[in-house]
Amino acid sequence: MTDKKKVARMILAINPGSTSTKLALFDNGQQLVIEDFEHSYESLAHFGSIINQFPHRLDIIERFLETHAIKEPMLKAVMGRGGLLHPLQGGVYHVTEAMLTDLKEARYGEHACNLGALLADAVARRCNCPAYIADPVVVDEMIEEARFSGMPEIQRKSIFHALNQKFAAREVALRMGRRYEELRMIVAHLGGGISVGSHRYGKVIDVNNALDGEGPFTPERSGGLPAGDLLRLAYSGTFTREQLAKKILGNGGLYAYWGSRDMRKLEKAVEDGDSSALLYLKAMVYQIAKEIASHGAVLEGKVDAVVLTGGLAKYGFMMELIEQRISYLAPVFIIPGEREMLSLAENAFAVLNGEREVYEYVGE
């Protein structure tokens, strides 16, 4: 049970994922409790759409608060994971009616993260406290020359792991005794999806679209593909549009080569001397390192730090292989795991302390 004495500045963080709902309570920056409620694909399938999952997920939150004896006046803010909205600069945003409408209608795409602001708003209304989101996946701070794809009909988009990238960058800046806003850094979020961004003085001026196929291949995504070969495959009659899309996002990358997206199994196979597993690992490392190195050009060779973060950053041997290839760029810092819950809380407390501005979301 949560200590009832520690309620002066309590924050609830809500992070809905495709197969989980992560909830955490923080007080004055300290994590009190964090729980991960898992959902099977089967249990969510009967809802039909993401928005129809809202009552089910809200019920989980209410039971979580009841279990930990959290009464309405105790919460000073509720922070939800940001969803698919129109492009935004990084930062903290009030949950507004315009935001709720765009998310309910899935105007910019459907994903479980769209429920973050909706759930935060529902809880905050009952607790009479503000609801926020921070650094959603659509953070767009790209410089103009980075938007060109080579085909006028297609513009490069900024969709990436902004929440964890910015949190990891701030943590490294703190270790260096500097401010995030005065550093030039390359940050690689390594997980089921992989995004690599150039952070220049607090802005992510270029990053691969981790959702749509740019960048290195990942445990489950194909990454960038030769355009001509992909075009020929698309018109070969071998695959439907849906099947090909699944090969790019979900059943691509390591899964396509090795039959599993579980990095723990790959790690064990490598330790057991499986030469095929080692080759696939080295191939993925090669592409990741090449992507990181390309951002040295974006930052004109002036790089203060390279940051490796995300779930795959827990895999020591893989980090060693990457570091061998990119350590010439700058000192390498490893921030293992996805710190999304901590990042949500850190943003909320920064707002409560008057250290971070809050922006208003306005629909396009």
What does this structure look like?
This protein has 364 residues and is an alpha/beta fold. It folds into 2 domains: 10-138 and 341-360, Nucleotidyltransferase, domain 5; 162-337, ATPase, nucleotide binding domain (Nucleotidyltransferase, domain 5, 2-Layer Sandwich), CATH 3.30.420. It is built from 12 helices and 14 strands. The chain has a 7-stranded mixed β-sheet, with helices on both faces. Residues 1-7 have low confidence and may be disordered.
Task: Give a topology summary.
Blueprint: E1 10-16, E2 20-27, E3 30-38, H1 41-45, H2 54-67, E4 75-81, E5 92-94, H3 97-104, H4 115-127, E6 131-134, E7 148-151, E8 154-155, H5 162-175, E9 184-190, E10 194-200, E11 203-207, H6 227-234, H7 241-248, H8 253-258, H9 263-271, H10 275-298, E12 305-310, H11 316-326, E13 332-336, H12 340-352, E14 358-360
Parallel strand pairs: 1-4, 4-6, 5-14, 9-12, 12-13
Antiparallel strand pairs: 1-2, 2-3, 5-6, 7-8, 9-10, 10-11
Helix pairs in contact: 2-4, 5-12, 9-10, 10-11
Helix/strand-derived category reads alpha/beta
Order of strands, widest sheet:
3-2-1-4-6-5-14
Mean pLDDT: 93
Main sheet?
Answer: 7 strands, mixed
CATH superfamily membership of the largest domain, which one?
Answer: ATPase, nucleotide binding domain
User: Count of helical segments?
Assistant: 12
Any low-confidence stretches, pLDDT <50, length ≥5?
1-7
Number of DSSP E strands: 14
Shape: globular
Beta-strand percentage range: 15-25%
